[in-house]
Amino acid sequence: MQETTLPAELHERVEELREEHLLLDPRPREEMNRMVLEAMEDVNREYIIVMTILGLVTAVTLFGAWGYLMSKGLGLAGIRRPIYWGLFIVSFVFWIGISHAGTFVSAILRVFKAEFRRPFTRAAELMTTFALAGAGLYPLIHLGRTWRFYWMIPYPNQRWLWPNFRSPLVWDFLAINTYLLGSTMYLFLPLIPDLAMARDKSKGWRKVLYTILSFGWRGTEEEWRHLQKAIQIFAWAIIPVMFSVHTIVSWDFAVAMKLGWHSTIFGPYFIVGAILSGISAVGFILYMIRISVKNMRYFIRPEHFDALGKLLLIISMGWAYFFFNEFLLEWYGGEHTVQEILRYYTTGDMAPVWWTMVICNILIPWLVLWNKNWRRKPWVMALMGIIVNIGMYAERYVIVVGALSRNRIPFDWGWYKPSLVEISIALGTFTLFFFLYGLASRLIPLIPVWEVEEGHHAHGLKRIGKGVVKTVAELE
Amino acid sequence: MYGGYQGRYAPKTFVALYHEPDDAARAIDVLREIGIEDRFIQVQSGVPYRAEFLGRPERPSGVPKYAMVGAFVGFLAALGLYYGTPLLYPIRVGGKPLLAVPPSFIVLFELTMLGMLIATFLGVFVESLLPPVFGKRVYHPEVSDGAIAVFFQVPAHLAERVKQALAATGPSEIAPAEGTFL
Amino acid sequence: MQATSSQVRKAVITVVVLSVLGVLLVAAVGLYRSQQTPPQPLPFNHQVHVQKVGLSCLYCHSNANKGQSAGMPTTQRCIACHQQIEPTTEGERILRQYAENEESIPWVPVAIMPDFVYFSHQVHVNANISCEQCHGEVGQSTIAPSLTKKQNMGWCLACHQNQPQERVARLTSCEACHK
Amino acid sequence: MAEMDPQHTKWVMVIDLDRCNGCGACVTACAMENNVAFTGEEENAYGRGMHWLRIVRYWVGEWPNVQVRFMPMLCQQCSNAPCEPVCPVFATMHSEAQELNIQVYNRCIGTRYCANNCPYIARTFNWFDYEWPEPLNFHLNPDVTVRRRGIMEKCTFCIQRIRAAEEEARMEGRPVRDGEVQPACAQACPTEAIVFGNWQDPNSKVRELAESQRGFRFLEELGTEPKVIYLSSQKHEF
Known about the structure:
The structure holds four protein chains of four kinds.
Chain A: H1 11-20, H2 29-41, H3 45-72, H4 87-98, H5 100-111, H6 121-141, H7 168-188, H8 191-201, H9 204-213, H10 221-254, H11 266-292, H12 296-299, H13 302-333, H14 336-346, H15 351-369, H16 372-375, H17 378-405, H18 420-443, H19 449-458, E1 459-464, E2 467-472
Antiparallel strand pairs in A: 1-2
Chain B: E1 11-18, H1 21-34, E2 41-45, H2 51-54, H3 63-88, H4 102-127, E3 148-155, H5 159-167, E4 173-176
Antiparallel strand pairs in B: 1-3, 1-4, 2-3
Chain D: E1 11-16, H1 25-33, H2 41-48, E2 54-60, E3 67-73, H3 83-86, E4 92-95, E5 100-103, H4 113-116, E6 124-125, E7 152-153, H5 159-171, H6 184-188, E8 194-198, H7 205-210, E9 215-216, E10 228-231
Parallel strand pairs in D: 1-10
Antiparallel strand pairs in D: 1-8, 2-3, 4-5, 6-7, 9-10
């Protein structure tokens, strides 16, 4: 920011750096506030049409189909003996995976002080919350008797019965609730100052809404001190929670006696897979925000896609390592049933899905992401988001459905075809996610303005010899 | 504050608005030189500034204490649920002992973290006394535009002197303010 | 600013008060309805039969020590006594009508066993558990009774756990009562 | 008769594979006794049959010397059951006194985790509410719950018969006699391949048969400690 000390001949280079990096390109807070508020209040006709369609489609394909499923019985889904878990559990694991992006981008990058995170932490945290909202539906949807789900909650009752704390499903229940509550609070805390800003700047029903939601925030030294301390605690504490959530989801499979599931590497394998799909989904969401929400081209720039692309490449490599490790060890183990399962994956009926997974998760990312120019193109990263998520959906399909199709008694081998109701519900969660996200994009500031301004304060340019470099000051 | 004083000694609250932290820091020095104690000064800002930037007294936040208490409560709740409920009504499964230690770590971990996170969250509101239930508090809406608002309380007869002294620090506005600090 | 915050406060208070009232209303209606006795085909008086006449429970509910269900008295069993008594009450007149038409009395059961519960009166009666221990003081009621004791799973378990040590495991196992 | 502890029994089943000819009478009897629903031809072909007991059929040897073998497969009532710890609501649990695997239908919420974790694929799920159109409903056994949709179920060793025999024995003040309890499958087996009894009774027929040289337990290496003992003079291997 000390441009006065920079000589004129470096002007061009400085301009270049400004254009590249959001944090070197400060605009007055008022203008940023206005930009963010404009984005929120930009409820145009297109938006209303899209949201109406999304809402109606969700109501029919998700909730309508769910109601139909409940009224008739789970037989409407394509599951059968011995494939007792199907698309619902696949989708459940998938959405839990997506939900890891918010925490990863926000908490881990905050702990490691990765400055590029600043403008899109909230977009990622919103993803976490809504993906969890979608994921949380599946354990309910897939129950044979959804209306009895509350028996999993530990509460004193006339039956004198408690849930079985040995069951991985109860661990799931505890972990997902902890994560959902934790990540929602973690979304809300840094949002308070922005809501206070919105309160000061808006009128009508929005003013009432933000007055309630901002809890009378004023930005005093005390308030900031407590808020920052809390955010710090959250950032550190929510990381192990996030790791535990997907580990426990993987334990749903790994603790079972089922061959193809009983694997010691499933915990970290699932975590890396979750972050892989989550990070790539962030790329897709940022692209969507950039093209569809007003004023966002200033906040979300190629540098952010570049950074995400690098992360994605590393995580794709990590995923490939775990995948190879798992496959190789199972293969060398040489047990008959496992051999059959692996044959079923690679050359059997599951082969198209299995190879989709390999191509989408390893081949395509590795071929594309090494190139900086491609990484910097938002649409390329959006496409990567779709491709990697197709690959990750396929991975969960292979693990859940593939392993269940083969067991120790060949008489009981089976195949599985998702039914229309299942597919409809699975698609319905996607529309639900986009519907909620679209709603939130007009209700709360998508960009954490105060964090961006703080970033502006922290970043500067410094001349060294005949060049100019970026500097970062540690404010926190 | 200045409780009981009437007339020309009655306290009055003012706000001085700045756009640069340097100016705000100088203003606070000026106020202190005049003899206004730190507790009669309150700073509001749109981004967090560390206390040392503005030369304000450093005070630790109480939030970590909430976190620790919350974690402890969560831990106790988990202990009670995991080890207590099987004793209330024992149900055997799979030939396993009623009280098994290894799976308890999972329950203990999750509920400890849940307790900690909830307590931290609530701690912010309790510690900063949000939402305002004790009446109106001083506030300047320009704070959300990045301005730094320095609120101070002075006895009425000193108000003019303080205002004049502050004029040198380049505030964009000095005005009377309404409400309590809290 | 001032106006808005008071509006907000008003809105919040209204919502809270209304929802509390709503919950209370639902609870009150539920409580009231749960205390109603179902209408019976004739006003039967337990008190007269048990305290004045001195019948034992097994005289009418004669299957209680022989099988799972305690059984309701047949019309024949009622009329066996009542044909020797001049009908004075409304109930006795209705009883005669049933007897003349050779119909059984369509009693409305008060204690309904869910179909997933296995319960045998025989076992409990033979273990010397008095009827009142589970059914309460039915013998003192003057109308066809409502459930005087809340019978739910915890209530069953309270007794089953309170047994000689060597039998508790068997008595508290799920399959002891669930089928 | 030796002293037996009436508070503790261990019910076991012996299935003599050398005697089994795969007729399927046990499957039918089981369905009749336990109100097992008929799912219809189409559903059954899709793998939605509700049999608690099914005849696993497989071939041994190379063409033309192919032999067909049958193996009645049912819940093995494992002492160390993989299905039990995974149920979140204790719908499947272990009866300590009778050493049986219990499925409490009205507690089940239908996670189907137990079925995935069963190496014997012995559990079946109520995909729909099945109907017994008149006059089929007259065969329904009042001692067994009619399950509704979304519930997991499995072989119970005909617990209603065990309970009835135990109650009768208790009223008469004696232990249950060997052979007094017979599950429907054992009762229906024309070749008497299925024998049922109390392991705690040293003179019982099951005890005698189970100790024969031909005895083995299916997938014993998994450590599930099944309580169904198969007898075969040939090697059974998949």
